[in-house]
UniProtKB/TrEMBL annotation, chain B:
Top-rank lineage group of the source organism: Bacteria
Keywords assigned: ATP-binding, Nucleotide-binding, Transport
InterPro entries: AAA+_ATPase (IPR003593), ABC_transporter-like_ATP-bd (IPR003439), ABC_transporter-like_CS (IPR017871), ABC_transporter_ATP-bind (IPR050166), P-loop_NTPase (IPR027417)
Name of this protein: ABC-type nitrate/sulfonate/bicarbonate transport system ATPase subunit
Length: 252, 247
Protein backbone atom coordinates (compact mmCIF):
# COMPACT_ATOMS: atom_id res chain seq x y z
CA UNK A 1 0.00 0.00 0.00
CA UNK A 2 2.76 2.43 0.95
CA UNK A 3 4.67 1.52 -2.21
CA UNK A 4 1.58 2.19 -4.31
CA UNK A 5 1.18 5.59 -2.68
CA UNK A 6 4.74 6.47 -3.64
CA UNK A 7 4.45 5.22 -7.21
CA UNK A 8 1.03 6.65 -7.99
CA UNK A 9 1.81 10.42 -8.15
CA UNK A 10 4.83 10.15 -10.53
CA UNK A 11 2.90 7.65 -12.64
CA UNK A 12 0.00 10.09 -12.88
CA UNK A 13 2.38 12.90 -13.86
CA UNK A 14 4.03 10.82 -16.60
CA UNK A 15 0.61 9.82 -17.97
CA UNK A 16 -0.45 13.46 -18.02
CA UNK A 17 2.75 14.54 -19.81
CA UNK A 18 2.26 11.87 -22.47
CA UNK A 19 -1.37 12.92 -22.91
CA UNK A 20 -0.41 16.59 -23.28
CA UNK A 21 2.32 15.67 -25.77
CA UNK A 22 -0.16 13.63 -27.80
CA UNK A 23 -2.86 16.33 -27.80
CA UNK A 24 -0.40 19.08 -28.78
CA UNK A 25 1.02 17.07 -31.69
CA UNK A 26 -2.46 16.21 -33.00
CA UNK A 27 -3.82 19.77 -32.54
CA UNK A 28 -0.85 21.44 -34.26
CA UNK A 29 -0.85 18.86 -37.04
CA UNK A 30 2.95 18.57 -36.99
CA UNK A 31 4.36 16.36 -39.73
CA UNK A 32 7.82 15.91 -38.26
CA UNK A 33 7.25 15.68 -34.51
CA UNK A 34 5.86 12.21 -33.67
CA UNK A 35 3.00 11.20 -31.42
CA UNK A 36 3.70 8.79 -28.51
CA UNK A 37 2.12 6.01 -30.57
CA UNK A 38 4.54 6.64 -33.44
CA UNK A 39 7.44 6.52 -30.99
CA UNK A 40 6.27 3.15 -29.68
CA UNK A 41 5.75 1.74 -33.18
CA UNK A 42 9.19 3.01 -34.20
CA UNK A 43 10.77 1.37 -31.18
CA UNK A 44 8.91 -1.90 -31.85
CA UNK A 45 10.24 -1.83 -35.39
CA UNK A 46 13.80 -1.67 -34.05
CA UNK A 47 13.12 -4.41 -31.52
CA UNK A 48 11.80 -6.67 -34.30
CA UNK A 49 14.79 -6.29 -36.58
CA UNK A 50 17.13 -6.65 -33.58
CA UNK A 51 19.02 -3.38 -34.01
CA UNK A 52 17.77 -1.89 -30.74
CA UNK A 53 19.49 -4.59 -28.67
CA UNK A 54 22.65 -4.05 -30.65
CA UNK A 55 22.59 -0.32 -29.88
CA UNK A 56 21.81 -0.88 -26.20
CA UNK A 57 24.51 -3.51 -25.71
CA UNK A 58 27.10 -1.38 -27.56
CA UNK A 59 26.34 1.60 -25.33
CA UNK A 60 26.37 -0.49 -22.17
CA UNK A 61 29.65 -2.11 -23.21
CA UNK A 62 31.31 1.28 -23.78
CA UNK A 63 29.96 2.79 -20.58
CA UNK A 64 30.93 -0.37 -18.71
CA UNK A 65 34.47 -0.33 -20.07
CA UNK A 66 34.97 3.41 -19.53
CA UNK A 67 33.49 3.27 -16.04
CA UNK A 68 35.53 0.21 -15.06
CA UNK A 69 38.73 1.89 -16.21
CA UNK A 70 37.73 4.97 -14.22
CA UNK A 71 37.10 2.88 -11.08
CA UNK A 72 40.41 1.05 -11.44
CA UNK A 73 42.25 4.35 -11.81
CA UNK A 74 40.34 6.58 -9.44
CA UNK A 75 40.09 4.41 -6.34
CA UNK A 76 43.82 3.68 -5.85
CA UNK A 77 44.68 7.24 -6.85
CA UNK A 78 42.03 8.72 -4.56
CA UNK A 79 43.14 6.55 -1.62
CA UNK A 80 46.74 7.57 -2.19
CA UNK A 81 45.83 11.25 -2.42
CA UNK A 82 43.74 10.94 0.71
CA UNK A 83 46.54 9.40 2.74
CA UNK A 84 49.60 11.25 1.41
CA UNK A 85 49.39 15.04 1.74
CA UNK A 86 52.11 15.68 -0.83
CA UNK A 87 50.26 13.65 -3.46
CA UNK A 88 47.06 15.57 -2.72
CA UNK A 89 48.76 18.97 -2.86
CA UNK A 90 50.39 18.09 -6.19
CA UNK A 91 47.58 16.30 -8.01
CA UNK A 92 44.42 17.96 -6.73
CA UNK A 93 44.90 21.32 -8.51
CA UNK A 94 45.51 19.53 -11.82
CA UNK A 95 42.37 17.43 -11.43
CA UNK A 96 40.33 20.45 -10.40
CA UNK A 97 41.35 22.11 -13.68
CA UNK A 98 40.60 19.02 -15.77
CA UNK A 99 37.27 18.28 -14.09
CA UNK A 100 35.20 21.17 -15.51
CA UNK A 101 36.33 20.50 -19.09
CA UNK A 102 33.34 18.92 -20.84
CA UNK A 103 34.06 15.51 -22.39
CA UNK A 104 32.69 16.97 -25.65
CA UNK A 105 35.74 19.25 -25.77
CA UNK A 106 37.92 16.14 -25.79
CA UNK A 107 36.30 14.76 -28.98
CA UNK A 108 38.86 16.19 -31.42
CA UNK A 109 41.72 14.87 -29.30
CA UNK A 110 40.02 11.50 -28.90
CA UNK A 111 39.74 11.16 -32.69
CA UNK A 112 43.34 12.24 -33.10
CA UNK A 113 44.60 9.73 -30.55
CA UNK A 114 42.23 6.80 -30.90
CA UNK A 115 40.57 7.18 -34.31
CA UNK A 116 36.89 6.47 -34.72
CA UNK A 117 36.72 2.94 -33.29
CA UNK A 118 35.47 1.88 -29.87
CA UNK A 119 38.45 3.35 -28.08
CA UNK A 120 37.39 6.98 -28.57
CA UNK A 121 33.97 6.78 -26.88
CA UNK A 122 35.44 4.63 -24.11
CA UNK A 123 38.13 7.26 -23.57
CA UNK A 124 35.54 10.05 -23.41
CA UNK A 125 33.42 8.14 -20.91
CA UNK A 126 36.53 7.43 -18.85
CA UNK A 127 37.42 11.14 -18.83
CA UNK A 128 33.93 12.03 -17.67
CA UNK A 129 33.76 9.36 -14.96
CA UNK A 130 37.23 9.40 -13.47
CA UNK A 131 37.48 12.88 -11.93
CA UNK A 132 34.37 12.90 -9.75
CA UNK A 133 35.37 9.50 -8.35
CA UNK A 134 38.93 10.60 -7.55
CA UNK A 135 37.67 13.69 -5.76
CA UNK A 136 35.03 11.75 -3.81
CA UNK A 137 37.48 9.01 -2.78
CA UNK A 138 40.12 11.46 -1.55
CA UNK A 139 37.46 13.44 0.32
CA UNK A 140 36.23 10.20 1.88
CA UNK A 141 39.70 9.39 3.20
CA UNK A 142 40.06 12.90 4.57
CA UNK A 143 36.86 12.61 6.55
CA UNK A 144 37.80 9.36 8.34
CA UNK A 145 37.59 10.25 12.00
CA UNK A 146 41.08 10.49 13.55
CA UNK A 147 40.04 8.37 16.52
CA UNK A 148 39.75 5.31 14.25
CA UNK A 149 43.14 5.94 12.65
CA UNK A 150 44.64 6.54 16.09
CA UNK A 151 43.23 3.25 17.35
CA UNK A 152 44.70 1.41 14.36
CA UNK A 153 48.06 3.09 14.96
CA UNK A 154 47.87 2.19 18.64
CA UNK A 155 47.48 -1.52 17.89
CA UNK A 156 50.46 -1.30 15.55
CA UNK A 157 48.84 -3.26 12.74
CA UNK A 158 50.44 -3.80 9.34
CA UNK A 159 49.85 -1.42 6.46
CA UNK A 160 47.84 -4.12 4.70
CA UNK A 161 45.55 -4.55 7.70
CA UNK A 162 45.24 -0.79 8.11
CA UNK A 163 43.88 -0.48 4.55
CA UNK A 164 41.90 -3.71 4.59
CA UNK A 165 40.14 -3.23 7.91
CA UNK A 166 40.15 0.51 8.55
CA UNK A 167 40.76 2.83 5.60
CA UNK A 168 38.80 0.98 2.91
CA UNK A 169 35.75 0.08 5.02
CA UNK A 170 35.70 3.63 6.37
CA UNK A 171 35.63 5.17 2.88
CA UNK A 172 33.38 2.51 1.35
CA UNK A 173 30.20 4.57 1.82
CA UNK A 174 31.89 7.51 0.07
CA UNK A 175 33.13 5.19 -2.66
CA UNK A 176 29.60 4.03 -3.31
CA UNK A 177 28.36 7.61 -3.53
CA UNK A 178 31.29 8.45 -5.81
CA UNK A 179 30.57 5.47 -8.04
CA UNK A 180 26.92 6.41 -8.30
CA UNK A 181 27.84 9.93 -9.41
CA UNK A 182 30.54 8.60 -11.70
CA UNK A 183 28.34 6.03 -13.43
CA UNK A 184 25.59 8.62 -13.80
CA UNK A 185 27.99 10.99 -15.54
CA UNK A 186 29.37 8.15 -17.69
CA UNK A 187 25.89 7.29 -18.90
CA UNK A 188 25.16 10.99 -19.39
CA UNK A 189 27.97 11.44 -21.88
CA UNK A 190 27.22 8.29 -23.85
CA UNK A 191 25.32 10.23 -26.52
CA UNK A 192 28.12 12.73 -27.01
CA UNK A 193 30.74 9.97 -26.96
CA UNK A 194 28.86 7.99 -29.59
CA UNK A 195 28.54 10.90 -31.96
CA UNK A 196 31.89 9.71 -33.22
CA UNK A 197 31.07 6.02 -33.01
CA UNK A 198 30.77 3.79 -35.99
CA UNK A 199 27.31 2.36 -36.60
CA UNK A 200 26.29 1.37 -33.08
CA UNK A 201 25.17 2.65 -29.73
CA UNK A 202 22.13 4.60 -28.56
CA UNK A 203 23.91 7.90 -29.22
CA UNK A 204 24.69 6.82 -32.75
CA UNK A 205 21.09 5.67 -33.18
CA UNK A 206 19.79 9.10 -32.21
CA UNK A 207 22.13 11.00 -34.54
CA UNK A 208 21.64 8.53 -37.38
CA UNK A 209 17.84 8.59 -37.12
CA UNK A 210 17.87 12.34 -37.60
CA UNK A 211 20.48 12.40 -40.37
CA UNK A 212 19.02 9.52 -42.34
CA UNK A 213 15.50 10.74 -42.98
CA UNK A 214 14.26 12.76 -40.01
CA UNK A 215 13.09 9.76 -37.98
CA UNK A 216 12.21 11.83 -34.90
CA UNK A 217 10.17 8.94 -33.53
CA UNK A 218 13.41 7.00 -33.13
CA UNK A 219 15.22 10.05 -31.72
CA UNK A 220 12.66 10.29 -28.92
CA UNK A 221 12.56 6.51 -28.44
CA UNK A 222 16.36 6.60 -27.99
CA UNK A 223 16.10 9.42 -25.47
CA UNK A 224 13.49 7.61 -23.40
CA UNK A 225 15.47 4.36 -23.45
CA UNK A 226 18.59 6.21 -22.26
CA UNK A 227 16.59 7.71 -19.41
CA UNK A 228 15.12 4.40 -18.32
CA UNK A 229 18.46 2.56 -18.47
CA UNK A 230 20.08 5.38 -16.48
CA UNK A 231 17.43 4.95 -13.81
CA UNK A 232 18.04 1.19 -13.70
CA UNK A 233 21.82 1.66 -13.43
CA UNK A 234 21.40 4.05 -10.52
CA UNK A 235 19.05 1.59 -8.85
CA UNK A 236 21.71 -1.08 -9.24
CA UNK A 237 24.33 1.13 -7.58
CA UNK A 238 21.93 1.98 -4.78
CA UNK A 239 21.58 -1.70 -3.95
CA UNK A 240 25.16 -1.53 -2.68
CA UNK A 241 24.11 0.97 -0.03
CA UNK A 242 22.10 -1.80 1.58
CA UNK A 243 25.13 -4.01 2.16
CA UNK A 244 25.60 -4.65 5.87
CA UNK A 245 29.22 -3.49 6.05
CA UNK A 246 28.22 0.03 4.95
CA UNK A 247 24.92 0.32 6.79
CA UNK A 248 26.69 1.94 9.77
CA UNK A 249 26.92 5.11 7.74
CA UNK A 250 23.37 5.28 6.49
CA UNK A 251 21.03 4.30 9.28
CA UNK A 252 21.51 6.57 12.17
CA UNK B 1 57.36 -1.95 42.91
CA UNK B 2 59.48 -1.21 39.84
CA UNK B 3 58.99 1.96 37.82
CA UNK B 4 56.88 1.48 34.72
CA UNK B 5 56.41 4.99 33.42
CA UNK B 6 58.72 7.87 34.25
CA UNK B 7 57.55 11.32 33.20
CA UNK B 8 60.23 13.99 33.49
CA UNK B 9 59.37 17.67 33.41
CA UNK B 10 57.17 17.61 30.29
CA UNK B 11 55.86 20.84 28.81
CA UNK B 12 53.49 21.50 25.96
CA UNK B 13 52.06 24.64 24.45
CA UNK B 14 49.79 25.21 21.50
CA UNK B 15 50.03 28.23 19.29
CA UNK B 16 46.97 29.85 17.82
CA UNK B 17 47.95 32.63 15.47
CA UNK B 18 50.90 34.51 16.90
CA UNK B 19 50.37 33.76 20.58
CA UNK B 20 51.43 30.55 22.21
CA UNK B 21 49.43 29.11 25.09
CA UNK B 22 51.05 26.82 27.61
CA UNK B 23 48.86 23.80 28.34
CA UNK B 24 51.18 21.58 30.36
CA UNK B 25 53.84 23.34 32.39
CA UNK B 26 56.36 20.92 33.81
CA UNK B 27 54.89 17.66 35.06
CA UNK B 28 56.97 15.03 36.87
CA UNK B 29 55.37 11.71 37.72
CA UNK B 30 56.56 8.17 38.23
CA UNK B 31 54.09 5.33 37.92
CA UNK B 32 54.91 1.89 39.27
CA UNK B 33 54.39 -1.43 37.53
CA UNK B 34 50.83 -2.62 38.14
CA UNK B 35 49.79 0.65 39.73
CA UNK B 36 46.44 2.32 39.08
CA UNK B 37 46.82 6.10 38.93
CA UNK B 38 43.89 8.45 38.46
CA UNK B 39 44.41 11.99 37.23
CA UNK B 40 41.74 14.55 38.08
CA UNK B 41 41.64 18.25 37.41
CA UNK B 42 39.44 21.18 36.47
CA UNK B 43 37.83 20.86 33.05
CA UNK B 44 39.92 22.23 30.23
CA UNK B 45 43.11 22.02 32.26
CA UNK B 46 44.88 19.84 29.72
CA UNK B 47 44.18 16.35 31.04
CA UNK B 48 43.57 14.91 27.58
CA UNK B 49 46.68 16.58 26.19
CA UNK B 50 48.68 15.02 29.01
CA UNK B 51 47.17 11.61 28.24
CA UNK B 52 47.92 11.91 24.52
CA UNK B 53 51.53 12.64 25.36
CA UNK B 54 51.85 9.74 27.81
CA UNK B 55 50.23 7.36 25.29
CA UNK B 56 52.58 8.59 22.56
CA UNK B 57 50.14 10.33 20.22
CA UNK B 58 51.64 13.75 20.92
CA UNK B 59 55.23 14.72 21.54
CA UNK B 60 56.02 17.04 24.46
CA UNK B 61 57.84 20.29 23.64
CA UNK B 62 60.25 19.67 26.49
CA UNK B 63 60.99 16.83 28.89
CA UNK B 64 60.74 13.11 28.33
CA UNK B 65 58.47 10.13 28.91
CA UNK B 66 60.06 6.74 29.38
CA UNK B 67 58.31 3.39 29.54
CA UNK B 68 60.39 0.56 31.01
CA UNK B 69 63.38 2.86 30.79
CA UNK B 70 62.97 3.39 27.05
CA UNK B 71 62.00 6.82 25.80
CA UNK B 72 58.56 6.85 24.19
CA UNK B 73 58.48 8.10 20.60
CA UNK B 74 55.04 7.05 19.46
CA UNK B 75 52.08 4.85 20.33
CA UNK B 76 52.47 1.08 20.38
CA UNK B 77 50.52 -1.98 21.41
CA UNK B 78 52.20 -2.14 24.83
CA UNK B 79 49.84 0.56 25.97
CA UNK B 80 46.33 0.92 24.58
CA UNK B 81 44.38 4.17 24.77
CA UNK B 82 40.68 3.95 25.52
CA UNK B 83 39.36 7.29 24.42
CA UNK B 84 36.45 9.33 25.63
CA UNK B 85 34.53 9.15 22.35
CA UNK B 86 35.16 5.48 21.71
CA UNK B 87 36.90 4.01 18.72
CA UNK B 88 35.22 0.65 18.18
CA UNK B 89 35.12 0.31 14.39
CA UNK B 90 31.47 0.56 13.33
CA UNK B 91 32.08 -1.42 10.14
CA UNK B 92 33.36 -4.52 11.94
CA UNK B 93 31.42 -6.95 14.12
CA UNK B 94 32.20 -7.18 17.84
CA UNK B 95 34.29 -10.30 17.19
CA UNK B 96 36.19 -8.69 14.29
CA UNK B 97 36.83 -5.65 16.49
CA UNK B 98 38.21 -7.80 19.27
CA UNK B 99 40.40 -9.67 16.78
CA UNK B 100 41.70 -6.43 15.26
CA UNK B 101 44.81 -6.02 17.38
CA UNK B 102 45.74 -9.71 17.48
CA UNK B 103 48.76 -10.63 15.39
CA UNK B 104 49.57 -13.89 13.67
CA UNK B 105 51.11 -15.40 16.80
CA UNK B 106 47.58 -16.19 17.90
CA UNK B 107 46.53 -19.43 16.29
CA UNK B 108 42.85 -19.10 17.01
CA UNK B 109 42.07 -15.37 17.01
CA UNK B 110 38.32 -15.93 17.16
CA UNK B 111 38.68 -17.97 20.34
CA UNK B 112 40.77 -15.24 22.00
CA UNK B 113 38.21 -12.63 20.92
CA UNK B 114 35.32 -14.68 22.24
CA UNK B 115 37.11 -15.22 25.55
CA UNK B 116 37.42 -11.46 26.08
CA UNK B 117 33.87 -10.83 24.87
CA UNK B 118 32.77 -13.27 27.55
CA UNK B 119 35.00 -11.59 30.14
CA UNK B 120 33.26 -8.22 29.70
CA UNK B 121 29.81 -9.76 29.49
CA UNK B 122 29.29 -9.56 25.74
CA UNK B 123 28.78 -13.28 25.23
CA UNK B 124 26.21 -13.82 22.50
CA UNK B 125 26.93 -10.47 20.85
CA UNK B 126 30.08 -11.51 18.98
CA UNK B 127 28.44 -11.29 15.56
CA UNK B 128 26.63 -8.02 16.23
CA UNK B 129 27.63 -4.72 14.71
CA UNK B 130 28.41 -1.81 17.07
CA UNK B 131 25.29 0.11 16.01
CA UNK B 132 23.24 -2.72 17.47
CA UNK B 133 24.82 -2.28 20.92
CA UNK B 134 24.02 0.12 23.76
CA UNK B 135 26.52 2.74 24.95
CA UNK B 136 27.59 0.61 27.89
CA UNK B 137 28.12 -2.46 25.72
CA UNK B 138 30.16 -0.41 23.25
CA UNK B 139 32.42 0.74 26.05
CA UNK B 140 32.85 -2.82 27.23
CA UNK B 141 33.67 -3.92 23.67
CA UNK B 142 36.35 -1.22 23.55
CA UNK B 143 37.83 -2.35 26.86
CA UNK B 144 37.76 -5.98 25.69
CA UNK B 145 39.51 -5.07 22.45
CA UNK B 146 42.27 -3.41 24.46
CA UNK B 147 42.56 -6.29 26.96
CA UNK B 148 42.73 -8.89 24.17
CA UNK B 149 46.20 -7.78 23.11
CA UNK B 150 47.39 -8.10 26.74
CA UNK B 151 48.79 -4.58 26.93
CA UNK B 152 51.06 -3.78 29.83
CA UNK B 153 49.43 -0.37 30.21
CA UNK B 154 45.86 0.86 29.81
CA UNK B 155 45.41 4.57 29.15
CA UNK B 156 41.82 5.47 29.94
CA UNK B 157 40.68 8.96 28.99
CA UNK B 158 37.32 9.57 30.68
CA UNK B 159 36.11 6.19 29.50
CA UNK B 160 32.88 6.21 31.47
CA UNK B 161 31.87 9.84 31.08
CA UNK B 162 29.24 9.14 28.45
CA UNK B 163 27.53 6.49 30.55
CA UNK B 164 24.82 6.87 33.13
CA UNK B 165 25.83 6.53 36.79
CA UNK B 166 24.51 2.99 37.17
CA UNK B 167 26.26 1.68 34.06
CA UNK B 168 29.45 3.49 35.03
CA UNK B 169 29.45 1.84 38.45
CA UNK B 170 28.77 -1.57 36.96
CA UNK B 171 31.61 -1.33 34.43
CA UNK B 172 33.98 -0.01 37.11
CA UNK B 173 33.26 -3.08 39.22
CA UNK B 174 33.84 -5.32 36.24
CA UNK B 175 37.08 -3.53 35.43
CA UNK B 176 38.35 -4.12 38.97
CA UNK B 177 37.47 -7.80 38.71
CA UNK B 178 39.37 -8.08 35.40
CA UNK B 179 42.38 -6.20 36.76
CA UNK B 180 42.46 -8.70 39.60
CA UNK B 181 43.02 -11.45 37.00
CA UNK B 182 45.25 -9.67 34.52
CA UNK B 183 47.51 -7.15 36.14
CA UNK B 184 47.85 -4.02 34.08
CA UNK B 185 49.30 -0.64 34.84
CA UNK B 186 46.44 1.82 34.46
CA UNK B 187 46.31 5.58 34.03
CA UNK B 188 42.80 6.94 34.26
CA UNK B 189 41.80 10.48 33.40
CA UNK B 190 38.52 11.44 34.98
CA UNK B 191 36.50 14.37 36.23
CA UNK B 192 34.65 12.10 38.61
CA UNK B 193 36.44 12.14 41.98
CA UNK B 194 34.34 9.29 43.34
CA UNK B 195 35.37 7.15 40.36
CA UNK B 196 39.01 8.01 41.08
CA UNK B 197 38.88 6.99 44.75
CA UNK B 198 36.89 3.88 43.88
CA UNK B 199 39.51 2.58 41.43
CA UNK B 200 42.94 4.12 41.95
CA UNK B 201 45.96 3.54 44.19
CA UNK B 202 46.92 7.19 43.84
CA UNK B 203 44.97 10.25 42.75
CA UNK B 204 46.90 13.05 41.06
CA UNK B 205 45.24 16.47 41.23
CA UNK B 206 46.15 18.88 38.45
CA UNK B 207 46.02 22.66 38.69
CA UNK B 208 44.27 25.02 36.33
CA UNK B 209 45.79 25.62 32.92
CA UNK B 210 48.72 25.54 32.38
CA UNK B 211 48.54 22.24 34.25
CA UNK B 212 51.01 21.29 36.93
CA UNK B 213 50.66 18.68 39.65
CA UNK B 214 48.97 20.34 42.60
CA UNK B 215 48.79 17.40 45.02
CA UNK B 216 48.97 13.63 45.02
CA UNK B 217 46.68 11.62 47.30
CA UNK B 218 47.32 8.03 48.29
CA UNK B 219 44.27 5.81 48.40
CA UNK B 220 45.34 3.25 50.98
CA UNK B 221 42.24 1.07 50.92
CA UNK B 222 42.09 -2.57 49.84
CA UNK B 223 39.62 -3.75 47.21
CA UNK B 224 36.71 -4.32 47.22
CA UNK B 225 36.05 -0.77 48.36
CA UNK B 226 32.72 0.41 49.61
CA UNK B 227 31.83 3.84 48.33
CA UNK B 228 29.87 4.48 51.50
CA UNK B 229 32.96 3.91 53.69
CA UNK B 230 33.43 7.13 55.77
CA UNK B 231 37.20 7.10 55.24
CA UNK B 232 36.68 6.96 51.49
CA UNK B 233 34.10 9.74 51.67
CA UNK B 234 36.52 11.83 53.70
CA UNK B 235 39.23 11.34 51.09
CA UNK B 236 36.79 12.27 48.34
CA UNK B 237 35.92 15.49 50.17
CA UNK B 238 39.61 16.29 50.65
CA UNK B 239 40.26 15.89 46.94
CA UNK B 240 37.21 17.99 46.06
CA UNK B 241 38.43 20.69 48.44
CA UNK B 242 41.77 20.58 46.67
CA UNK B 243 39.87 21.21 43.44
CA UNK B 244 38.24 24.23 45.06
CA UNK B 245 34.87 22.73 45.90
CA UNK B 246 33.75 22.80 49.52
CA UNK B 247 31.06 20.38 50.54
Amino acid sequence: MIKLKKILPPLALITTLIAVWWIVVVKTGSVIFPTPLQVVTGALELIEDGTLWEHISSSLMRVGAGFLLAVLTAIPLGLWMGRVDGAYATLNPVFQIMRPISPIAWIPLAILWFGVGNASPIFLIFIAAVFPLIVQTAAGVHTIEPRYLNAAENFGVSRYKLYRQVVIPAVLPDLIVGMRISLGVAWLVVVAAEMIALRSGLGYMIMDSRNAGNRYDLVIAGMIIIGVIGLLLDGLMRLMEGHKSVRWRYDR
Amino acid sequence: MTDKIVIKNIKKSFSSGSESKAVIDGINLTIGDGEFVAIVGPSGCGKSTLMKMIAGFLQPDEGSIAVDGVERKGPNANGILISQHGSVFPWLTVQQNLMFGLNDEHIDKAAVADHYADLVGLKGFEQHYPRELSGGMLKRAEIARALAVKPEILYMDEPFSALDALMSLRIRTELLRILEEERHTVILITHDVEEAVHLANRVVVLSNRPATIQTIFDVPFAHPRKLSDPALQQLRDDILRELGIDC
